[in-house]
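Field log, afternoon session.

UNIT: design team B
ACTIVITY: writing a sequence onto a fixed backbone
BACKBONE:
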């Protein structure tokens, strides 16, 4: 009977979470700069604010299909403070995300934080609130989950919940903790599949 007991853990923000046998493994993916193109202004990425500006990196679609086929749950996360600041309309954001879901059907969920830095929101990355929300909704074991991004904020959120971070080499990875830095999205996916297989063999 003991194998059915939950394993209790604590997120980086102090929130308790219980893991049960049979929980899913998630792959959290930053949106801007990874799934869609983001222009660069003054050494910072700028998110698109209109559907016409939203250009999806379709090269990732077959790669995400491979992760999905391996039994992983695909969760897109994104900070979109433009909503709070007033220059991004929610309707326009919804149109972009409708297109993203239709173009990349492997995506299971898409979670956003619409707050500004000054709101001190627990779901605004690098805080791990979006990951915690997805873990509860999708029954994810965060200790065995993965985070893909080209930014240090996602790696920091991954560290807070015990997930493995895989960063695509970019000017925005910073010097914060990260588990892997790889040259491109394809290399990241192959690394996840290798790690997943190794973990499964060890668990067996």
């Amino acid at each position: 009977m003991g194998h059915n007991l939950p394993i209790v853990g604590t997120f980086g923000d102090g929130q308790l979470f219980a893991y049960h046998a049979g929980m899913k493994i998630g792959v959290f993916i930053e949106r801007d700069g990874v799934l869609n193109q983001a222009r660069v202004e003054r050494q910072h990425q700028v998110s698109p604010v209109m559907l016409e500006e939203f250009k999806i990196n379709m090269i990732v679609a077959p790669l995400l299909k491979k992760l999905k086929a391996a039994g992983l749950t695909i969760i897109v996360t994104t900070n979109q403070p433009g909503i709070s600041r007033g220059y991004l309309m929610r309707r326009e954001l919804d149109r972009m995300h409708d297109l993203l879901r239709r173009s990349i059907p492997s995506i299971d969920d898409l979670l956003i934080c619409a707050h500004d830095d000054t709101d001190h929101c627990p779901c605004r990355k690098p805080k791990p609130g979006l990951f915690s929300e997805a873990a509860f909704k999708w029954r994810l074991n965060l200790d065995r989950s993965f985070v893909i991004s080209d930014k240090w904020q996602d790696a920091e959120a991954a560290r807070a919940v015990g997930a493995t971070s895989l960063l695509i080499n970019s000017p925005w990875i910073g010097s914060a903790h990260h588990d892997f830095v790889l040259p491109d999205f394809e290399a990241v996916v192959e690394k996840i599949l290798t790690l997943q297989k190794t973990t499964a063999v060890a668990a067996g």
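LOG NOTE: The chain has one domain: 23-203.
NEXT ACTIVITY: expression trials, pending approval
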